[in-house]
């Protein structure tokens, strides 16, 4: 387990002090994908860099399997690795294979283990054919894929993923998600930050939401969605809708206490969305037809983690990024 208690990081310049992380207490157990969410500047990357031993906290504690990174940096580094989507973490002058070999040796992976692992990882990220090409000739996506292989080279007990699929083609991003889910199922502790909330929803069993370096809330994606008060929404498209259809929809929404948004599409159809915890598709369709409208479409959308995060941040008074 990685545990942080009261983690704090201040960046001081001559002119100002920025508090990037303001007392975070987190638990990242093995065998689970834990999410860390927040808007731009919330403190996610700073937290991950502290856990990766790249930054020293100003205050608070971090323990990695009861080891203190400040005292046992070597042992901690052997247990963790970092994949950061936005950063080039490999050497341009070396080939893909040479990079993996180099980083593997840095992590003290014995040669007999490293040789097959390098080949396996190159295969995993689809770089076997380009293994002996220098990275300076790789595309951005290829470099990013090599960074993913580099992040797995020490078979880490804890994998820190900071926007790992940023800029990746959809099939490679999907493969990476599969690898992450498999590693967690096999016992790796994963911490994930991502702006792709569908990715977080798919992978994470537990999510911490932070804002301004503070803890806002935590729970499973389903718990967060329920807590944020986000409901399933039903959207109908109605052709030939006179004012009486709009009035019927508004009256139904008022009776049910449902949130309603009514709009006109470019072709003049009425588009009405009602959001409510109960089953409202039937009553809504009946109200439309009863008022003389023709139902051209009906969609039911389950609330997403994205809806929940936006609602939670709005409630906390954060400005959407
Ligand atoms: N080296 C630094 N010096 C000064 N301030 C910094 C430094 N690094 C980060 N900050 C500030 O700390 C705060 C948190 O930044 P951080 O990068 O951790 O946020 P984030 O949640 O990862 O944001 P994003 O989603 O944009 O990547 C921001 O206000 C940022 O400007």
TrEMBL record:
Localisation: Cell membrane
- Residues forming the ABC transporter domain are 2-237
Q: Which GO terms describe its cellular component?
A: plasma membrane
Which coarse location class applies to the principal site listed for this UniProt protein? membrane
Q: What GO biological process term is on the record, naming one?
A: response to antibiotic
Q: How does it sit in the membrane?
A: Peripheral membrane protein
> What GO terms are given for molecular function?
ATP binding; ATP hydrolysis activity
Keywords tagged on the record: Antibiotic resistance, ATP-binding, Nucleotide-binding, Transport
Pfam families recorded? ABC_tran
- Respond yes or no to whether keyword ATP-binding is given for this record: yes
Superkingdom is Bacteria
The entry's family comment says: Belongs to the ABC transporter superfamily.
Q: What's this protein's name?
A: ABC transporter
Q: What is the lineage of its organism?
A: Bacteria, Bacillati, Actinomycetota, Actinomycetes, Streptosporangiales
